[in-house]
Specification:
This protein has one helix and no strands. The chain is mainly alpha-helical and 38 residues long.
Length: 38
C-alpha cells in the first residue's frame, strides 16, 4: 500500500489541492511501475 498526499508539495497551491494531488499520484504510479519517460 502506498499513500501520496498534498503534504509533499513544497508550497501549497492557493486553490483546490485536488488536481495537483491527483497529478502527483499519477506521477508516483508511473515511477513505481517503471514506466517513467524521464
Amino acid at each position: 500500500l502506498r499513500v501520496i498526499d498534498a503534504s509533499i508539495m513544497p508550497t501549497i497551491v492557493s486553490g483546490n489541492t485536488n488536481g495537483p494531488t491527483l497529478a502527483l499520484a499519477d506521477r508516483a504510479v508511473t515511477l513505481m511501475m517503471g514506466e517513467a519517460a524521464h
